[in-house]
Each structure stands twice: as structure tokens, then as C-alpha cells.
Design goal:
five-stranded antiparallel β-sheet; 411 residues; mainly beta; flat; five-stranded mixed β-sheet; single chain; 1 helix
């Protein structure tokens, strides 16, 4: 085909995000006026190349809108059929021609309803197109169209290119934003029901009720959404929030299922428990319905009485192994998953020594592995694959144990 200038081209790699293996961009380029592109700065590894564009055109009879599907090298529309390219250190791969595949445009239709399920006529509905950058991070939100609901409360957007969108309706007091991921030819029906946003307030306390022996405002509370469709951060979703000097925190616009964790803790400290209304939500997600009443009194209890494991990692000849990852994870599979308090990692120092603090009491497995992808330890399937070869260690609250690990490298 003819060269396609202005096309977005990405080198795609798989990363573990919130316990799931997700394809994200590792490098991004824009094709020049003759369709050429260059993706640089890649670390050694396996990649797929995909191309996308928002260009749309009408059929000769004006009845159909066409777009280019998101196309993977060598010219397929599904990442499962894409050719994987192994890039070595300093290697250059050339002549990667990607022939874009045409297909019908996508559409979104739906209805705007009030809290009682009644259609809302003459409501403004906005469509936003979401862009992401390296690693799947949010980059921008641009307008992709505006319409109004008819007398039956229905709306429609046609002629849409593949991509990530948000359908939004409502005003400053009650609103709703619904994400939609579109491929070429998709037709999605989305009900939008504006509601008052739900906010959550809570506090961070020490286990014994004493004042924290460090500044509370160094801490950040991380609300981790555990819904399967929200591995990547969504536009407008709550993110990490700072704790105030009086140990209080507030999270706005929260809906869905969440775990709560604390970042920037001193290394001997851990999250002991999370409670709300007398209910333990430490390791079971707190479900927040959209439009629910504000949540008051979530309490995160911190403790410095967790167990610790320390030791050395050596090869079979007794030489220290600094370039490995030590995995410490509960033997009980029910305690695995994203942000688990029962899964920890450590990197040994130059002498192969490591230490892991803040372990809740449990039976653990410990192993040192040479090749571990960042976040891979959140994947239950990966932990299951190394369970048999891992050392078994019982850890009690407040205990300190010294162990020695032997690992094989270069295999």
C-alpha cells in the first residue's frame, strides 16, 4: 500500500501490572511523511510492533465509514497472531514493514438514566479519547465528540477509530464516566447513570495506639482497584493520596473493589490490618457502589512487630550471588495476588546478603531466582511454578530468622 505518514507506531512488551500480564508500550514513534519510523532505546527482550491511526474515510456511496484497525507486524489485527521480535544488546532490526488493515469504523450508543433508571432527555454526552504513554501510563484526554440525548434519553457516536474512550454525562454534583475499549467494527451499548461521587476518609494508626515514631505525612495510602478490567489506571480514578500530619487521609471519587496499602513505610513496619465499620477488609476488597454514601472511618493499622528473614544467597560452590531476586511468599495460595502482604522480594548486596522485614505470621516459601520480571511475583501462576523448589520457613510475629539459599544461575 501507499506510505502512511503520521501513524503512531509502538514497540509492545508485556509487563506484570496488578498481578496481570499486560501489553504496554516500551517505545513510541510517529511515521514520517514517507511512512518511515524508528523505535529506539529498547532494552534487550521480546517485543511486538503495532501501528494505529485515527484516520477515517467514507465509502464511495457515503453510507459506511472506514478506519484502520490497530495492526501488528507483520500485518495482523490480534496481538495473539503478532510476530515476536527478539532484540539483543545493541542490535538493530530493519525493514519492518507494517501494512495497515482497513475495517469498518466503531460506534457507541446507549442511554443516560437517572438514579431510578428513568431516561434523561436533552442531556449533554461527551466522548473523550484517551492516550497512554510508556508503560501504559495516562498521557492525555482529548475530545472525540459531543452530542445530546433525545426524548428517549438515547445517544450515539459513529465513525470512531479503534482506541480507548470515556463516555461522560452529568454536571458538577452528579456525573458518570464509563470507559470503553474499541476495535475496528465494534458496536458497544453503554448505559450512563450520573451519580454523586463517593469519597472515603480514614486514618492511619499504630497497633498499640501510641504515636507513630515517624512523620505520618511521609506516608501515602494506595487504593488498589482489584476489578479484572482495571489493571491500568483509568482516567479520573483515585490514585495514591498523602497522609496528613494528624494521620488522616481522604480519597475522592472512589467506586469499585479496592484493597488499601501504605507506601513509604520504614522497612521494619507493615500494614497489620484494614478495617471499616468493624469489618476486616485487609486482604478482601472493599466494594464501593457508584453513588454510595461517603465512607467514613476506614482504619489502617500499622505494626513494627512483623517477622523478618535474613541470610545469604550462594551458588553451589559457595560464591555469593548478588544478581538475583529473593522471593518470599506464603505457602497458602489463597494469600497470593496483587499487593499481597504475604509476598515480598529483596535484592542481595554485593556479598549476597539480603533481609526481608514486615512479614505477617505464616508459613512461607523462599527462593532466589536470576530472571524475575518486575511484578511477576503478583502472578499466582508464577508463584505456583516455583513453589516446589522453594525452601519452607515458618515465620512467627516478631521472629528473626537467618537462612541460606542456594541458587543456580546462567541456566
Amino acid at each position: 500500500g501507499d506510505p502512511a505518514p503520521g501513524v503512531r507506531v509502538e514497540a509492545i512488551e508485556f509487563r506484570y501490572i496488578n498481578g496481570r500480564r499486560i501489553p504496554v508500550a516500551a517505545a513510541i514513534a510517529t511515521a514520517n511523511d514517507i511512512g518511515e519510523f524508528r523505535l529506539g532505546g529498547l532494552h534487550p527482550g521480546a517485543y511486538q510492533v503495532r501501528a494505529s491511526t485515527e484516520e477515517a474515510w467514507e465509502s464511495d456511496d457515503g453510507k459506511t465509514t472506514f478506519v484502520h484497525a490497530v495492526t501488528y507486524f507483520p500485518g495482523v489485527t490480534g496481538i495473539g497472531q503478532a510476530q515476536s521480535l527478539n532484540v539483543g544488546l545493541g542490535q538493530q532490526i530493519t525493514d519492518l514493514d507494517v501494512r495497515l488493515i482497513a475495517g469498518p469504523a466503531a460506534r457507541i450508543d446507549g442511554v443516560v438514566e437517572d438514579g431510578e433508571g428513568r431516561p434523561m432527555p436533552s442531556q449533554v454526552v461527551n466522548l473523550s479519547n484517551i492516550s497512554r504513554t510508556l508503560g501504559g501510563a495516562l498521557l492525555s484526554s482529548g475530545s472525540a465528540g459531543t452530542t445530546r440525548t433525545d426524548a428517549r434519553g438515547t445517544y450515539e457516536f459513529r465513525g470512531l477509530a479503534p482506541g480507548e474512550y470515556i463516555v461522560h454525562a452529568g454536571g458538577p454534583s452528579e456525573s458518570a464516566s464509563v470507559p470503553a475499549l474499541l476495535s475496528a467494527g465494534d458496536s458497544k451499548h453503554i448505559v450512563v447513570s450520573p451519580r454523586k461521587p463517593t469519597n472515603l476518609a480514614g486514618e492511619v494508626v499504630a497497633e498499640d495506639g501510641a504515636p507513630l515514631p515517624f512523620a505520618a505525612n511521609r506516608l501515602r495510602v494506595w487504593p488498589l482497584r482489584t476489578d479484572a478490567d482495571h489493571s491500568l489506571l483509568m482516567w479520573g480514578a483515585p490514585s495514591e493520596t498523602a497522609v496528613s500530619a494528624d494521620r488522616k487521609f481522604r480519597i475522592t471519587n472512589i467506586q469499585g473493589e479496592y484493597l488499601f496499602r501504605v507506601r513509604n513505610l520504614p522497612r521494619e513496619w507493615m500494614v497489620k490490618s484494614v478495617t471499616f465499620g468493624g469489618r476486616d477488609v485487609t486482604d478482601a476488597p472493599l466494594a464501593v457502589a457508584r453513588g454510595a454514601a461517603d465512607i467514613q472511618g476506614l482504619q489502617i493499622v500499622l505494626s513494627n512487630k512483623g517477622g523478618s528473614l535474613s541470610g545469604v544467597v550462594e551458588d553451589r560452590s559457595g560464591a555469593p550471588l548478588p544478581d538475583v531476586t529473593v522471593l518470599v511468599f506464603a505457602e497458602d495460595r489463597g494469600r497470593w495476588g496483587p499487593a499481597s502482604r504475604f509476598v515480598h522480594t529483596a535484592r542481595p548486596d554485593a556479598d549476597g546478603r539480603f533481609v526481608v522485614h514486615g512479614l505477617p505470621g505464616a508459613v512461607y516459601r523462599v527462593i532466589a531466582k536470576e530472571m524475575v520480571i518486575d511484578g511477576q511475583w503478583d502472578d499466582p501462576e508464577y508463584l505456583q511454578s516455583v513453589l516446589r523448589d522453594a525452601m519452607r520457613v515458618e515465620v512467627a510475629e516478631g521472629s528473626k530468622q537467618e537462612i541460606k539459599l542456594t541458587a543456580e544461575v546462567g541456566r
